[in-house]
Amino acid sequence: MKRIIGIVWLALAITVNLYPQHEGHHGHSHYAEHDSVVAHKLMFPSATPDRIIANLTVDPAHSFAVNWRTDQQIGVGVVELALATDGPEFLLRGVRKIKAISQKFQNQNRREPLVKATYHSAVIHDLEANTTYVYRVGNGSDDDSKWSEWFQFTTARNDMEKPFSFIYFGDAQNNVKSLWSRVIRSSFRQFPQVNFMLHAGDLINDRDANLEWGEWFHAGSFIHATVPSMMTPGNHEYRDGVLSSLWRPQFTLPENGPTEGLKETCYALDYQDMKLISIDAEGFDEHQEARTAQTKWLDSVLRTNSKKWTVMTMHYPIYSTVEGRDNRELREALKPLIDKYEVDLILQGHDHTYARGYAENKSKGLTVVQDAGTIYAVSVSGPKMYESRNQEWMVRRGEFTQLFQIITVSNDTIKYGAYTPIGTLYDAFDLIKKDGKKKLINKMPKTPVRLKKDFVKEE
Ligand SMILES: [Fe+2]
Ligand SMILES: [Fe+2]
Predict the structure, then answer these.
(1) How confident is the model over 21-36, as pLDDT tens digits?
(2) Dihedral (C-alpha) 341, 342, 343, 346: value to the nearest 10 degrees?
(3) How far is the CA of 304 from the centre of ligand 1 (A)?
(4) Which of 190, 266, 355, 422 could form a disulfide with 257 if both were Cys (CB 3.0 to 4.6 A apart)?
């Protein structure tokens, strides 16, 4: 048992829920806030749309998905959409109206009151590539209070004449309003032209807790409605093998996975010249059936993949950052396919530390690595922090550091930078693919490895 020195640290540990080291499915949360006005607002819907989020579809150049929530007095959902203009003239030209699918839904987390809502979901098709639109969501009435503000977003290009960028977040999970909000906000401030965001699971701590999801939506606020996202579920979106009942009502993700049960958790989509694949790692872990189905499906997706770049996200790491957190079954099933089809980059979470490297780390210590294989990254964006051990596969690692990654993809290069919320570069590389050859250029700063023990005094 570790002893913690200092009242300050003890207070921090309680507030931030950094302790103990090993998370279970039943992490703490601040449910005492139930009765507060703030918590009430975060949990319960009103007639005005909230939890508005844009998601990537299988064809982000020509469509986008949007979801939102209202109270159950609102039974109808409408999206209004127009080409963005310099002034408000888009209103005078007439807007396109798209009816959403609206479903009454209620759920009760074991430590929360019953929350009733109507969830609205729409996929907008027939959009022009590389075009800026405005949209708002509401109930179709003349009453402005039943509508969101107008958001602005830009569809994907359908060529590679210009690069695109996305931001990757490891686990947000704990104290999301208090301590994750600055991460997503500063990522957007540092890189507002970002095309989409990718969340590698454990967005929240307790599957269907309305307060926690409320915090996640609050933290991202208008960013979620402006920059489309894709997300893969982590073990904390699950409990006892069952996915959060809120996952499918509140997100619209591609339904091209292997089975009915894996829809919107295991899927693939294309963004310009990149194939992006989400593996449902917890599903993989829980059910033999889901394991076999996803492995077979992945094989067929990668076999028929004509995109130059391939990036996969899954919550559990193929290579973990410390002994005792190894995911052998996942690695043994997926690694042969990752190798066979030369997947470029694997973005993962779960270990609450940072590490980046590659499997056959023969060129350890070199700046330029010829014939580079797949790059693996494990990251954390929230405040819960574990320790790691230096391992053969790692090029750069770090503890006790909240990170987001800006990843820019052009014709021949993936540029990757891992940043802290105050904008400090912690890790970087370029992956260059030309004439069928891959070259890695390590660009991490020469700053010391950040270790938890340097910040948290323990005996
Ligand atoms: Fe996890
Ligand atoms: Fe986690």
Answers:
(1) 333 334 444 455 556 8
(2) 130
(3) 31
(4) 266
